[in-house]
């Protein structure tokens, strides 16, 4: 996939509604798959977290939401960036990828790599110099994609149930 075949566009209200519904379900599914939440509680907890993080929806301060589209116009993914102020370097905030998704019908076509390149261009345009993210432990495919894009592991959180 060539860079020129994909575009990153600010999310509209209609797109935000679709994003909200699909990504809450996906987030809940990942929490259950990684044995962090029970299936019964997962949708409510995911909704609560999204509501906490995006209390004003698209207008939430220092949150940047985009759709990933083919130049022809087909929606193929989402990107949600949030400004983070790090206690170690409060004068230099950075962006955190809260959500990066290539929709299932478009996976395996090299879109993740191209979309991440476009995301890094957008991060620079917004004036930031660093990007962080979280990957669920069982999502080895995502880890590979991010490492290939130049991300380095900095912390690993582990849990043991007793």
UniProtKB/TrEMBL annotation:
Residues annotated as coiled-coil are none
The segment(s) forming the N-acetyltransferase domain are 6-162
Q: Which one Pfam family would you cite for this protein? A: Acetyltransf_1
InterPro entries named among the record's database cross-references = Acyl_CoA_acyltransferase, GNAT_dom, N-acetyltransferase_domain
PROSITE patterns for the chain: GNAT
**TM spans (from-to):** none
What protein does this entry describe? GNAT family N-acetyltransferase
Organism of origin: Bombilactobacillus thymidiniphilus
